[in-house]
Amino acid sequence: MLQPRFDFVTCASPAGLHRMAYCEWGDPANDRVLLCVHGLTRTGRDFDRLARRLAGDFRVVCPDVVGRGRSDWLVAPTGYTVPQYVSDMVTLIARLRPATLAWVGTSMGGLIGLGLAGAVAYARMMRGARPHPGAWPADHDIRLERLVLNDVGPRLDPAALGRIGQYVGQPGEFDTFEQAVQAVRQVSATFGPHSDAQWEELARHVYVERGGKWVKHYDLNLAVPLAVETADAYSAGEQILWHAYEGLDCPVLIVRGAQSDLLSRATAAEMLARNPRARLHEVAGVGHAPTLMNEEQIEPVAAFLLGTGQG
Questions:
Q1: What is the domain class of 5-157+239-306 according to CATH?
Q2: pTM to 2 decimals?
Q3: What are residue 214's phi and psi, to 5 degrees?
Q4: Rounded to whole angstroms, how far apart are CA atoms 112 and 37?
Q5: Domain definitions of the chain by residue range
Q6: Which end of the chain lies in a sparser environment, N or C, as judged by fewer CB atoms within 10 Å?
């Protein structure tokens, strides 16, 4: 079975340097890159099955966002925010030097993709307003060729955010891996039906053995920025994300769990209305968020990314 390669890239924050780990699949010389970015408390290994499906066509790169998995933890937990994550992804993309870049973002990973798109658009605008002779040509810019937003959009349901926030900072410690798997089943029930083997796979990289106990892989301080989020800040962030979303000039696939409490059906419909290049694929029997672990979920995404489906 195809296995990934592992590496890391050194990134900067206001508090210093940190390493962001990533795994990659496929030909390392392939400059057709697919970047897959996970949800709030998950890791890049969530995309193993999608990566195996697409490794013959893309160099598939799956980072562990800082504070998770094999990546470093930030010295200042207030840095666990989308702008920092976008900065880290820019550093990673600079290392990868893609000729074409596609993006799959689950939940938080989708927000990071939108944040990146907004940052790129702003940089282009500023260069246009203040050109100078030493500027790189436009074809050196980061440009998303295709974007998959997996159960996420510019507007998120506050009640669902509250549900997610309840467990982020809670310590989880178990004597056996089997107990950890059961905890993942309970917390992630909205993922929908999975086999026993799939639940074990979903738990394998989010619980790690330390000191004879199975503990969460991530920095519990991820909860710190969530706890201080204000209604005004949330509203301002939503407007920024809508602006970035409306400015997307690439095909967009919105994947929505049909029972999702984070991305409402109304918001998905508004997303279709506000960007004519977007289309929607709903996954029956699933809430937040589709795990892209079975063929029924993988193939529509693969077809979109390969340009063999609509869009």
A1: alpha beta
A2: 0.94
A3: -100, 115
A4: 8
A5: 5-157+239-306
A6: N
